[in-house]
Amino acid sequence: MELKLPEIPELSRQHRLAAQEQLDRKTKPVGSLGRLEELAVQLCAIQHKVPPDTARKRILVFAADHGITEEKVSAYPREVTAQMLANFAAGGAAINVLARLMGGELFVVDVGVAAEPVVGVKNRKVRWGTRNFAHEPAMTVEETLQALNVGIELAFEAAEDEVDILCLGEMGIGNTTAAAALLCLLTEAREEQVVGRGTGLTDAQLEHKRAIVARAVARHREWVKTPFEALCAVGGLEIAALVGSMIGAAASKIPVIVDGFIVTVAALVAYHLTPKARDALIFAHRSEELGHRYALELLEANPLLDLGMRLGEGSGAALASFLVEAAGRILREMATFAEAGVSEREEQDVT
Ligand SMILES: Cc1cc2ncn([C@H]3O[C@H](COP(=O)(O)O)[C@@H](O)[C@H]3O)c2cc1C
Ligand SMILES: O=C(O)c1cccnc1
Predict the structure, then answer these.
(1) Which purpose does this protein serve, as stated in its record (predicted)?
(2) Ligand 2 atom 5 nearest Cα
(3) Cα–Cα distance for residue pair 42/300, rounded to 1 Å
(4) Residues 170, 172, 176, 179, CA torsion sign
(5) Whose CA is nearest to atom 20 of ligand 1?
């Protein structure tokens, strides 16, 4: 198998300009809806249409396990990943509540959970968890490509189903460690800057997690030459699938709402593999996880929300989807000055 990525179209300058022009004719002071106006314009540029479509929303939660959990880097046991899949299927997780509230479809995709498949979860297992990257590469080239392709396929399936907005999330105990190691390998970041508490480590446990990441990153730096190899070395199956889904969505002109730390690191990998993938991304929120700020800066991202959240599952993306939909609906539904018979701004001479 080879790394073959789909072609990503340019953002549409024509639709961006048309959107801005229409917004300026709506019954409000010019620019008064602030970042909602920027969002509306961005949606039009990504979708190549004015007004944008926002009614059909889908959340993809990619799930997998991590060999690095053998090193005691999470506050919770690895079994929680599979147990949460059952919870997702039963409708009891935070993301189920938010999906119902926003009227979005929730697809949970098992790319590599170390347990039997769960009914109600899409089974696309590449293997039962990654290898422990403290000792060896987490994934082979073949496994990484397979997981990337799962993501690309799910994005293409969303395009076939005429999904308007894609929200991305993840579930995988240990994945803040994988994401932090990936961030270190891709950049010059030091572990104190990007390795955080994840599900809630104590100070001593955090110290231990940092030592594990520092040692593993030093070891893999010896052979890793490309972003793809970094993904193989310390990434995760769900992280690779997230990368693929972003590239597939960008190729299909579907705006993607990026959740917290892990999804943002996946976005950085996608950007390194194909910079145009960045254009389709909308950043939901600033997570409490330590490395998120740094990852966002690298992508020049200014997220919509800052709610002190650090859950994952796509929860921040689901919340931000309300703002994204609001932006689209304003462009679609607001009356213009002419339509409503409202007087426009006056040029007043005050001299
Ligand atoms: C019950 C529970 C539900 C979750 N939902 C998302 N995560 C989040 O926490 C995990 C990453 O943190 P760490 O690297 O510290 O293991 C991921 O599964 C992430 O989605 C959860 C974690 C737990 C415990
Ligand atoms: O920022 C996130 O998405 C996050 C933080 C901690 C644990 N899981 C997810």
Answers:
(1) Catalyzes the synthesis of alpha-ribazole-5'-phosphate from nicotinate mononucleotide (NAMN) and 5,6-dimethylbenzimidazole (DMB).
(2) 310
(3) 15
(4) negative
(5) 171
> What is d(CA 213, CA 220) in angstroms, rounded to the nearest whole number?
10
The protein residue whose alpha carbon is closest to atom 3 in ligand 1 is: 84
- CB contact set of 3 (below 8 Å; sequence gap of 6+): 145, 148, 228, 273
For residue 272 the two structure tokens come to 């390194």
Q: What is the pLDDT of residues 63-78, one digit of tens each?
A: 999 999 999 999 999 9
What domains are there in the chain, each with its CATH number? 54-323 (3.40.50.10210)
Which residues are 166's β-sheet partners?
Answer: 58, 256
Report the pocket of ligand 2 as residue ranges, CB < 6 Å.
Answer: 176, 198-199, 259-262, 287, 289, 292, 310-312
Q: Lay out the sheet containing 256-258: strands in order across.
A: 122-123, 105-112, 57-64, 165-171, 256-258, 281-283
The answer to pTM > 0.90 is: yes
Interval between CA 194 and ligand 1 midpoint (Å): 17
The closest alpha carbon to 60, from 133, 136, 166, 157, belongs to 166
Mark whether 160 is an active-site residue.
Answer: no
Ligand 1 residue neighbourhood (C-beta within 6 Å): 74-76, 80, 84, 170-177, 198-199, 311-313
Q: Which of 173, 177, 310, 313 to mutate to test ligand 2, by most ligand atoms within 8 A of the CB atom?
A: 310
Does the model's ipTM exceed the 0.85 cut?
A: yes
97-145 pLDDT tens trace: 999 999 999 999 999 999 999 999 999 999 999 999 999 999 999 999 9
Distance, CA of 2 to CA of 161 (rounded, Å): 27
**At residue 53, what is the residue type?**
D
Catalytic residue among 229, 313, 333, 344: 313
